[in-house]
Every structure is written in structure tokens, then in C-alpha cells.
Amino acid sequence: MKIILIFTIFFGILSCDSAENIIILKVNKAVYTGSQADPLAKACSNWELSLKDVKTIFMLSKEVQREELHHRFYHLPCEIKGEALLNDKPISFTLNGASYIKINADKFFYKACDTEKCKPLFLMSPESNS
Questions:
Q1: What is the pLDDT of residues 74-104, one digit of tens each?
Q2: 31 Cβ neighbours under 8 A, 6+ residues apart
Q3: How far apart, in whole angstroms, are the C-alpha atoms of residue 92 and residue 25?
Q4: What global pTM score does this model have?
Q5: Pairing between β-strand 100-104 and β-strand 108-112 as defined by DSSP bridges
Q6: Which of 25, 49, 59, 101 could form a disulfide with 19 if both were Cys (CB 3.0 to 4.6 A apart)?
Q7: Using one digit for the tens of pLDDT, what is the confidence trace for 7-26?
Q8: Could you give the CA distance from residue 57 to residue 122 in angstroms, rounded to a whole number?
Q9: Is 25:85 a contact under the CB 8 Å cutoff?
Q10: Residue 94 in contact with residue 26, Cβ under 8 Å?
């Protein structure tokens, strides 16, 4: 019985990191830091996400290590910053137009979204697994 209780508590703690416990408080406008001659500049200025969109991104995203982020995801000079509560703790986040989020909580970590449902929410999709 103790083992079942320990597993229940352990998996309950793991699930606390899920996006179900995220409340999006603020989403800023997209900021483009590249060349204004780049066609991406206009796409970035038109990239807008609602609080609901950002929550959807958090819910669909999975945590990734820097190595996977570097190898599978592009980095665009277009980002949206915001603030949220994750498990009742304030965090800041930066959404990159290339389908990932940098989250600043007690430490930095990354989440990325490579599902079809995320494609319309970002400017660029990641490299495929194949």
C-alpha cells in the first residue's frame, strides 16, 4: 500500500509541471530584431497571440533539452514575451517564432511544440524527426 501511495504522490508531483497549471497573465507584441529588409520583419509584425493561444502552446509543448532545441528547431529574430503563473509561481517566458518557448522560473528551461496544432500559432515549424 505504501508503494502505491509513493507512486501516486510521485506522479502527482510530476504532473504539477504540466501546462494545466499555467495561467497566462500578459502577452506582449512581437518584437523583430533582424534586418528590416527581411520579409520575416513583416510576418513578425503581424504575429499576434492571445492569452488563450499562449495557453494552448504551453499545453501542447513538451520540455526539450538544449541539444534537441539546437538540432531540431530554428531560431528566428522574432519573439513574444509574456508573464504567467506556473503552479502558482510567477514566471516570464519568451516565445520564439520558430515553435519554442524559453521559460524563466527558478531556472531557465525550454518547451517546444512540434504538433500540427501548433503550426498556425508560430511562424516556422521545426525540422522533422526523420
A1: 999 999 999 999 999 999 999 999 999 999 9
A2: 44, 78, 79, 80, 81
A3: 10
A4: 0.81
A5: antiparallel
A6: 59
A7: 333 343 343 444 459 999 99
A8: 9
A9: yes
A10: no
Q: What pLDDT score does 129 carry?
A: 54
Yes or no: say if 97 and 76 are a contact pair by the CB < 8 Å rule: yes
pLDDT tens for each residue of 43-82:
999 999 999 999 999 999 999 999 999 999 999 999 999 9
The HSE-up count of residue 20 (CA atoms within 13 Å, CB side) is 6
Q: What is the DSSP string of 15-46?
A: HTTSGGGEEEEEEPPPEE-S-TTSTHHHHHHH
CA distance 125 to 63: 16
